[in-house]
Amino acid sequence: MTPTNGIDNDNEHTDDGNSNPTIVDKSLPILHERLQQMRTHIHLEQQLRHPPNSNLSPCEFISSLLHILKNPDDPIPDAGYRTLLQSSSPKWHTQLCRSIGAPPPRPSLSSFSLSSTNQTRDHNEEQNRVASALGAAMMRPNNQFGILVQAEDAEKYTLTFPNGGNEGNSNRSPSGVSEEVDILDYEDGTCWVVCELRDVVSEELLVVLGWELVRSCSNSIYNNSSVGEMECREVEEKDHETDDGAWLVESLTWQDFRDAYRPGIGREEW
Fold it and tell me: Which residue, 25, 89, 100, 226, has most beta carbons within 10 Å?
């Protein structure tokens, strides 16, 4: 029946039969942009509580870092890997880069030289590339380190600290880690902590990790002259996020007890 008022009631279609964009269709790009902005804002707020953070004890630092790595793309892609890079000393940051065939961090991109928007953007892009490559490497099938990022073929684990009960369980919030754990504090800004990854069901020992931690600094020279020698301040401030006095990963030993990964063979450094 033809409308008597002469008005086309089908405003959703053109004369050629194609649908016009609705208000919802037009709003989708704006909605996606706002959601991304919200995710980024949430990530930045979480970063304030994430390592590196001088308020975290050695065990809290380890528990929080492993908890973040279990969901490395939350709230934005590669967020966990960026946290790992930011929580690394110059030596360990260089080691991570070498493990994926990436060049070591360039002193020219330190905070001293980030005087322009272009330099800051180049630095962030470089960090994003390293984080993305690190994530791809850790997610590879049959990779013994895939357990840290809960790769598809990896075992589900519970984090425990020897002599510290089971309060370091990384399946829960890491805020309540016991301080009864044996921590070898050298009282020179470095310490040594051992933790275990155990099967979440059987509690079978899967991996033992030994963490050498070092406190960040802003005014002193980084004294380790082996790998990645450079001023501590240059690397610590590279993202303007490293908390002065926060614990950082200096080195990590890995002893794997799973049959697929040469069980019991010495503490091989990652």
Answer: 89
Q: Please state, in angstroms and rounded to a whole number, the distance separating the CA atoms of residues 182 and 193.
A: 7
Tokens 């401030």 -> residue: 237
pLDDT, tens digit (0-9, with 9 covering 90-100), for 150-172: 999 999 999 999 876 444 443 33
Alpha-carbon gap, residue 69 to 145, rounded angstroms: 11
Question: If you write DSSP's letter for every residue of 169-183 in order, what string do you get?
Answer: -TTS-GGG--S-S-E
Report the alpha-carbon distance of residue 42 to residue 270 in Å, rounded: 31
CB 189 within 8 A of CB 217: yes
Go through the chain and tell me how many residues it has: 270
pTM comes to 0.68
Contacts of 98 (CB under 8 A, 6+ apart): 104
For the four alpha carbons of 136, 137, 141 and 147, in that order, the dihedral sign comes to: negative
Helix, strand, or coil (residue 117): helix
Residue 145's identity, in one-letter code, is F
Q: Which two tokens stand for residue 217?
A: 């600094």
DSSP H helical ranges for the chain: 23-47, 58-69, 79-86, 90-99, 117-138, 232-236
Give the model confidence (pLDDT) of 171-230 as tens digits: 333 444 444 567 888 889 999 999 999 999 999 999 999 999 999 974 333 333 333 333
